[in-house]
Amino acid sequence: MENIKEILFFLFAFIMTGSSVGVIMHKNPVKSALFLVVFFVSLASMFGLLGSEFLAVLQVLVYVGAIMVLFLFVIMLIAVRDENFENIGSRFGKTMVVSLLITAFLIQMTALVSVHFKNKIDTSAGYERTIDASANIKITGHAENISFQLFEKYLLPFEVISLVLLVGVIGAVVIAKKNRRKLE
Amino acid sequence: MSFFQVTDIIAIFPHLILVSGALIILILQISLPRYRTESAFIISIIAVTISTLISIFGLSSEALVSIFGQGASGLTYSGFLIGFDKLSKISAFSGHTIWNAYSGLYVFGILSCLLLTLLFTPKILKDINLNLSEAYQMILYTGAGLLFFVTANNLIMIFIGLELASLPLFVLAAWDRKNKSANEAGMKYFLLGVFSVAFLLLGSALLYGASGSMNLLDINGLIEGTGISTDMKRLYSAGLILVLVGIGFKVALFPFHGWVADVYEGSLTIVTAFMAGLVKIASVSVFYKLMILLGKPMGEPIMLTIIILSVLSMFYGNFTALVQTNIKRMFAFSSISHAGYMAALFVIPNTSRTGYLIHAEASGSLFFYAWGYALGSILVFGVIAYLENITKKNNDRVQITFEDLKGLSKRNPISAFLLSMGSLSFAGIPPLVGFYGKFYLLRVLFKENEIFLALMVTINSLIGVYYYARVVFNCYWDFEDEKSEEKSFAFKSVSAWISGISLGILILIIGIFSDFIVERAMFASLNFR
């Protein structure tokens, strides 16, 4: 089980690195945004692997569902086209980046397998500890636990953060408003 | 099941008054059909006055019972004049904020400065035709954020309080958005503020990693008890240094000063008064608190770092202020040198040979210096804001230079008097508050045998006298060819008159009561934990 978990971790880490490189390297902004979606989904899977399913669901709902859709809308509205942007890096450079990433991934996997075989022979203390940590997180990642933490121990920061958001909204409106001088 | 008790509410009572004032303004603005901006000013003045009075006189247990019911019996809320010596302390919201005399002291300092600055504001906003009620909401949120910042007992609350304080200031700095320099100032302040907060956050994360707690008192308990283990020490040091860098940006110490001159110059002058007075006094207090509670494991290296930063800030601020022609820029650079003077006191918590009392004395003189500095800068920037309105030509905001000050004593005697009083107080001329601030600061440094720092402070004060005296010289020298302009009054609004005159009186007479105030502040600092 742990074996699969670690392989999945490195798989998602690879996807995350690759897609975040894609976000900044791609010429077409829509495709960049889609790369960002891929990044967020694999980040959510990471949270799932750590045992905090609630956070994973929130990640998908909030970032992929809300924020990325907003990004795409904005891109659509201001109608950016790919010819507005310079092509970053040649085809050769892009191939180099992708192949470097793939090499890194393969090295990671081999290292993982070799370390794992070693661990099969003598279970070292460090390896045990990682299992313990993930078990702990499984309990605290529960939605009920999160809400208890949020509304009991961290009540004050939680409430003050809402004030910060309110200030942000009011400030943005008041700075961007048209004809402010007439409103006086 | 209740998530908080009455005690929690009492501990953040002044903060709540400010926040509810801002929310009332928001609701009235939306719901009343014949809403006028004047009412926003009145509501904010009422909110700030009530909380200032509470921070001065405190609330007795009877008053608390009559407000909050029986749950509050047996508690007192100590104010600056009453109840500091009782060593009362309220730890609230599971240790996120703490109400003790030390935080109460700075709550008093911040609220008094907030009240005096707020009185200057409405006329200035009216003159640029931007007297929107959102401005008063922003000011109240800034005040509340600073109060959360100084009463914080947790790295999270330090971060959030700082955010709540600085976000409205970003907006206020760019308030006059058509003005290019205001726009630039807002953007610069925003970017550098966000940048510095990133340092603060990373530092908090590292401190949490090293000590296992976000609570300052818990970390302090760990240090005093078992101590930080040697393999965690590097993580701890890196964390503390990053947190101090983050707050150093707000104090405007030397290597983190880059934003100061442009932001102070570009933004509305009254907003500059908020930045220079309020933000500085609050961040100085938190810096000192962190040094006392968390600084011990760092030992000598951090002491040396702070000595270097302090001396460099003094010299940099003074030498760049010497060559300025724009008055606002000059005061901006001089604020860096004042940050340097105050930073000299940050060394005291870490000197190994000291007892408990010297901490209190250092902290008391730090409060006195910071408060005096804040009062002085509010006066100076307030007067400059009104002078700008008078000299304004062609609808374009004019920056006041030394040339513009020539003959001011004839044209505008009261402005000239107040401006020169403020700058003489900065320079440290005897009957004014700045002199007493420097006196107590030097006394602590000499007692503590920090001769080098004391010498640096003295030398730099002497350098400072040159450019501060230049303000007075330009105001009062009899220039023959300056008779064309007509006479004008200093302030054109009642509230600004009240604030200007009370600031003048405060700066003149606080020195006489300095002994009393420093003693109060010392009492407060004995009650640190």
The biggest beta sheet of chain A is recorded as: none
Mean pLDDT of chain A: 77
Give, in order, the helices and strands of chain A. HHHHHHHH
Q: What string, H for helix and E for strand, traces the elements of chain B in order?
A: HHHHEEHHHHHHHHHHHHHHHHHH
Whole-angstrom Rg of chain A: 22 Å
Distance between the termini of chain A: 66 Å
Instruction: Give the class of chain B from helix and strand content and strand pairing.
Output: mainly alpha
Q: How much of the residues of chain B is beta strand, in percent?
A: under 5%
Major beta-sheet overview of chain B: 2 strands, antiparallel
Can you describe what's shown?
The complex is a heterodimer of chains A (184) and B (529). Chain A is mainly alpha-helical. The radius of gyration of chain A is 22 Å and the shape is flat. In chain A, 84% of the residues lie in helices and 0% in strands. Chain A has a domain at 1-83: Four Helix Bundle (Hemerythrin (Met), subunit A) (Up-down Bundle). In chain A, α1 runs antiparallel to α2, α1 (2-25) runs antiparallel to α4 (91-121) and α2 runs antiparallel to α3 (53-78). With 529 residues, chain B is mainly alpha-helical. Chain B has one domain (6-526). Helices cover 73% and strands 1% of the residues of chain B. Chain B contains 22 helices and two strands. Chain B has helices spanning 6-11, 13-31, 37-57, 61-68, 101-127, 133-151, 155-173, 180-211, 216-224, 230-251, 260-266, 269-294, 300-322, 327-345, 356-391, 402-405, 408-411, 413-427, 433-447, 451-476, 494-509, 514-526, and strands at 90-92, 97-99. Chain B has a two-stranded antiparallel ribbon. In chain B, α8 packs across α11, α15 runs antiparallel to α19 and α18 (413-427) runs parallel beside α21 (494-509). Chain B is globular and about 70 Å long. The two termini of chain B are 30 Å apart. The mean pLDDT of chain B is 86. The interface between A and B is medium-sized, with 21 and 35 residues.
